[in-house]
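Quick one: sequence plus pyridoxal-5'-phosphate SMILES, need structure tokens.
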Amino acid sequence: MDARGAVARISLEAIRHNLNVARQQAPNAKAVAVVKANAYGHGDLTVAAALEQDADMFAVARFEEAQRLRAGGIQLPILLLEGFFNIPQLEYAARHDFHVCVHSHDQLAALERTPLSAPITVWVKIDSGMHRVGFAPEEAETVFSRLAELPAVVQPVNAMTHFARADEPDNRAVTDEQIASFKAATQGRVKHTALCNSAGVLAFPDAHADFIRPGVMLYGITPFGDQQGTDFGLRPAMNFTTTLLAVREHKAGEPVGYAGSWVSPRDTRIGVIAVGYGDGYPRMAPAGTPVLINGRRVPLAGRVSMDMATVDLGPDATDKVGDEVLLWGDGLAAEEVARHVGTIAYELVTRMTARPRLEYVD
Ligand SMILES: *Cc1c(COP(=O)(O)O)cnc(C)c1O
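Reply:
Sure thing.
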């Protein structure tokens, strides 16, 4: 008997391999490794340090994320994907070699009225069809010429856009239109361009441009809902594991867990595993969601609670307390678990809590 709680074992070697897969897909582009949201749950400082030789740049969503990477010794330029949120952030960004996305008239006006201690590198965000942030293609010309006037901006500026539906292989038309609209708005007017998230890297080679921005694929996860990373030669970077903390005899007709929502149709053995929504394992995971125990898939039975979940090991099970349980990773793709839960693997890895320890295996 030697049980322990949930641990996420992270392979930095797998992450380096996955960045290399992205590079092989887009051999002429530079790579911005996206490490936002704590590197999709994999530990941003450690991941960034492991990629510093292989990436050309990093990207994060929040100023504080970039600040932490710099404070932790990361030296490559860091792109703020939504730019600065206020003037102090802009000033800090200029001093610390953060590249800023500029997506709004508010940001443009702030750049125009703020003298900076060092010139800042700007990526103008064009809204080519996502309709979340960015300048309309018709506005691009005006925005470029206003930025061209600014001594505090590195000239010429760069431009980026983001795809809304590049993960839908059966619907290429929308992405093709985004690519065409972005190209028309930026051609001949900017230094570098960047369009591709992971889905773009894998499915839209004609959009690789100067810089790619792979995120989820670095962690071995595919953006395509009905596939998994290994289909593209990616290696899962995270093995999210726990152990069996109890194995119990269970009679047919007996419920298990809160609300008695699952009742066993047969005499069986129930395994109690040391993971719950307090670790970030989704409470919404329904009965039937697989975990891997001693090489076989075992279904969840009953509700996931904060600290424990229960699985139906079967009447003949020989599994013991302390045996390892794989929640997702090598042999059980996070994408497959996500399909059971009704979400995407991006969310599974990103929503983990601080309780599971991150262990780096190489
Ligand atoms: C998060 C993000 C990415 C990375 O997307 P993935 O689908 O994880 O590859 C790229 N670009 C922007 C602007 C993003 O916000």
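The CA atoms of residues 353 and 360 lie 17 Å apart. The chain is about 25% helix and 20% strand.
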